[in-house]
């Protein structure tokens, strides 16, 4: 039996053994956090940076701005960065004064008024009721009071009759009524006269006319709406320059106007003398007009106007 151990190398095996001792086994790598491993891309884990990449990245780390680092250290210490204080401008101060002024003034006024003693209100005074000793007859009381001024019914029945021996003067349709356009045709500017009649509250008109020789007489009763009667009747008064003015006998609110000079008809060269008498009762305007080639007889006009007024009154 051989006394050599079984583990001894065979002859010629010593030449295959390396001259340097074996290197030490590297330590096992530490386990990275799970989150870092999951987030990092696979290429970055499998590849290690080369020496050139390491040298290229070192200057960027050395030239990093110090300001961000200082701010990071300040925030890490739990301190907030200092903020600049904003100053109030003149406009903001004026706005505050405008808003605060009434509020402060109202509060002061309310406090002053609340501190004053209450002012007692005067006692209620009611008139004492009185009753007549005798019973009053309603019909007698109505008769004693003022009569209503509004005239209703057929206005043609209130017109005076045409004198005998005179020639009938056709007015309107010849039935005694005159419309607004019929009345407007008696003026030189018919369109303007028509608009004035309608805008002034014209309601209706009754008229009668006759002629004697070269003189024409027209008696008109023109009624207006109650709410516009006063203004419309005052607008019907013509110009009074060059007129001889007087009153209808027995009526101080009337007017008689007699022209002293001849005038010319519209759209004509023919001259005539003109006169008119005006009076009002309620919503009805009475006007009597005379047109003649000769000066108008005032006495005849006053007589006609007086008789017509007596029928209205």
Please tell me about this protein's structure:
Strands 1, 2, 3, 4, 5, 6, 7 and 8 form an eight-stranded antiparallel β-sheet that branches. It is elongated and about 120 Å long. It has a domain at 155-312: Protein Transport Mog1p, Chain A, CATH 3.40.1000. The chain has 313 residues and is of the alpha+beta class. The longest helix has 26 residues, at 90-115. The chain has helices spanning 34-39, 42-46, 51-62, 66-76, 90-115, 138-144, 180-184, 190-199, 229-235, 298-312, and strands at 167-168, 202-212, 215-224, 243-248, 251-259, 263-264, 271-281, 284-292.
Beta-strand fraction estimate:
15-25%
> Which architecture name of the domain at 155-312 does CATH use?
3-Layer(aba) Sandwich
Low-confidence stretches: 1-24, 29-49, 51-72
CATH C-level name of the domain at 155-312: Alpha Beta
Number of strands: 8
Order of helices and strands: HHHHHHEHHEEHEEEEEH
Q: What is the straight-line distance between the termini?
A: 183 Å
What would a concise description of this structure say?
The protein is an alpha+beta fold and about 325 residues long.
Describe this protein with a few key phrases.
313 residues; alpha+beta; eight-stranded antiparallel β-sheet; 8 strands; disordered N terminus
What is the fold's blueprint, element by element?
Elements: H1 34-39, H2 42-46, H3 51-62, H4 66-76, H5 90-115, H6 138-144, E1 167-168, H7 180-184, H8 190-199, E2 202-212, E3 215-224, H9 229-235, E4 243-248, E5 251-259, E6 263-264, E7 271-281, E8 284-292, H10 298-312
Antiparallel strand pairs: 1-2, 2-3, 3-8, 4-5, 5-7, 6-7, 7-8
């Amino acid at each position: 039996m051989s006394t050599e151990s079984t583990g001894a190398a065979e002859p010629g095996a010593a030449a295959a053994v390396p001259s340097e001792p074996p290197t030490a086994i590297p330590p096992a790598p530490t386990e990275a956090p799970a989150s870092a491993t999951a987030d990092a891309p696979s290429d970055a884990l499998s590849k290690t940076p080369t020496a050139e990449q390491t040298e290229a990245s070192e200057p960027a780390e050395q030239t990093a701005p110090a300001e961000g680092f200082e701010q990071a250290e300040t925030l890490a210490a739990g301190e907030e960065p200092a903020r600049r204080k904003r100053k109030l401008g003149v406009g903001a101060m004026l706005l505050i004064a405008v808003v605060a002024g009434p509020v402060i003034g109202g509060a002061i006024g309310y406090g002053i008024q609340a501190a004053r003693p209450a002012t007692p209100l005067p006692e209620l005074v009611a008139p004492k009721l009185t009753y007549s000793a005798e019973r009053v007859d309603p019909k007698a009381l109505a008769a004693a009071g003022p009569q209503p001024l509004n005239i209703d019914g057929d206005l043609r029945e209130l017109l005076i009759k045409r004198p005998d021996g005179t020639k009938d003067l056709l007015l309107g349709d010849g039935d005694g009524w005159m419309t607004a356009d019929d009345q407007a045709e008696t003026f030189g500017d018919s369109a303007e006269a028509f608009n004035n009649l309608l805008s002034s509250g014209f309601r209706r008109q009754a008229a009668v006319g006759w002629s004697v020789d070269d003189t024409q007489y027209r008696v008109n009763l023109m009624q207006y709406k109650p709410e516009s009667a006063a203004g419309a009747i005052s607008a019907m008064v013509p110009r009074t320059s060059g007129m001889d003015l007087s009153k209808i006998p027995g009526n101080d609110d009337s007017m008689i106007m007699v022209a002293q000079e001849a005038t010319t008809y519209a759209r004509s060269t023919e001259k005539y003398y003109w006169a008119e008498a005006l009076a009002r009762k309620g919503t009805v305007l009475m006007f009597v007009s005379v047109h003649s080639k000769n000066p108008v007889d005032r006495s005849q006009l006053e007589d006609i106007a007086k008789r017509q007024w007596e029928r209205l009154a």
